[in-house]
Amino acid sequence: MNSPADLDRLSEEEVRKLAARLMVEVRTKQTLIDKLTHENATLKRLKFAATSEIYTGEQQRLLFETLDMDMEAVSLEIKKLAPPAAGTRDKQQPKRTPLPPTLPRKDIHHEPASTVCRCGCQLQRIGEDIAEKLDYQPGVFTVERHVRGKWACRQCETLVQAPVAPHIIDKGIPTAGLLAHVLVAKYADHLPLYRQSDIFERAGLGIADSTLAQWVGQCGVQLQPLVEALREALLKQTVLHADETPVQMLKPGNGKTHRAYLWSYCSTAFDPMKAVVFDFAESRGGRHADAFLGAWRGTLVCDDYSGYKALFRQGVTEAGCMAHARRKFHELWANHSSQIAEEALKLFGVLYEVERAAQDRDADQRYEMRQQQARPVADTLHAWLLAQRQRVPDGGATARAIDYSLGRWGALTRYLDDGALPIDNNWVENQIRPIATGRKNWLFAGSLRAGQRAAAVMSLIHSARLNGHDVYAYMKDILERLPTQPASRIGELLPHCWEPLD
To answer: What is the spatial distance between Cα 218 and Cα 424, in angstroms, rounded to a whole number?
Structure first.
């Protein structure tokens, strides 16, 4: 319905329904704007109140960069929901400091496709507009001078000029390359922004922590549609890994942290689509896994955490982790030189030998090898565990190790009957292992929004790694292409589909 003529063709009842639907949409949008406005006010209060709380200098800088990122992200979301009226200016936009004239500069010219006026006259160049963008290669800053020539027709006074190229940060100073460097350094190399600021200063141009934080906050919002598309692609797979790892999250207002969790979901090593999506949540409650997976009903490879149990009652198929079962016997053997554990490890070892031999086969061949070589070993292990359980007292470490395997035997051996299933959950555990390094450098996640932003960017970075891409090249390319990429073709920028432009 784009014109009064369209409305004239509607019946009175249809007009009422349309008006009611539009009112619901307006109220929903206004409710979200009010929520974000309140969140922004809370973030500002927390930032200005933080100076009176007990933080070390390093903690305070980490907290401030998180709050600056959150405020910039919220402001951009509000602007997207309620863009300023045409012709108005953002009064809060600070005046940009010119880039130092000592930095090397590279001119990039943008001229019209044709310099012939529509009246047939040759256009004359009468001037130019220059926009400077800051670029960075490790240790060296350069300036890109984007020169847009102005061409005019003296006959009909027509003015022609190449349009301003869209950027991931509208009217921002950083190039996609500089933004990619900041994101990769923060979320792949785990360098907090204040450390990056110090590195930039040694390279000849100090960039304030708050400025870097604003860039990261805006990038987080702009990249979210791509992360959502990655999640949708992942949930089309029939087999997924899942795991979770703790991350400390700051609770501003009392200067303390509490345990939050980074949930990880990824495709299997056998799947041609390589992807991992992280989901940050305030707790380890199973509701977070339920919310992420939604209507997905495939096979989930996971440990024995109770938070997944509700999913299995709803139709998700459980596949256990043989490595978890083996690990309990390995601890018995390493700590107590247990002979029972040693015997169990030998049988587990045979199962893994079959897997190593079958890993490069297709699913059907893998199934056949498992049935012929692994199934008899698994049956022997199961009978042996039952016999040993009768001989050991309840409550001991040996009994607990045996009970874990026997209690989950169906899930642990489900892989034997499906060549698409892995034997364990090690694949996803390897994806979250770098987070341990990150925790040492982050100290904590500054807020729920900051954790969610980190999860989103790390999903793209780690998925790019899984597909063998140079993560910097990938992030730089998608940051350049995303502003003009049609929503219907956003899948082309996903890590498992991405191809660099020539």
So the answer is: 38
Half-sphere exposure of 25 (CA within 13 A, CB side): 7
At 226-238, the pLDDT tens digits run: 999 999 999 999 9
Distance CA 402, CA 315 (A): 28
- The strands making up 299-301's β-sheet, listed across from edge to edge, are 276-281, 256-266, 239-251, 299-301, 317-319
Q: What is the pLDDT of residues 320-364, one digit of tens each?
A: 999 999 999 999 898 888 899 999 999 999 999 999 999 999 999
pTM: 0.81
C-alpha 149/C-alpha 111 separation (Å) is 6
What gap in Å lies between CA 326 and CA 390, rounded to an integer? Answer: 20
Q: CA torsion angle for 468, 473, 474, 479 (degrees, to 10)?
A: 170
As beta bridge partners, residue 391 has: none
Task: Of 95, 169, 175, give the one whose Cα is nearest residue 143.
Answer: 175
Rounded to a whole number of angstroms, the CA Rg of the chain reads 29
CA angle 66, 190, 473 (to 5 degrees): 105
Cα of first residue to Cα of last residue in the chain, in angstroms, is 42
**Phi and psi (nearest 5°) for 234?**
-65, -40
Domain boundaries along the sequence of the chain: 4-81, 105-223+453-493, 322-424
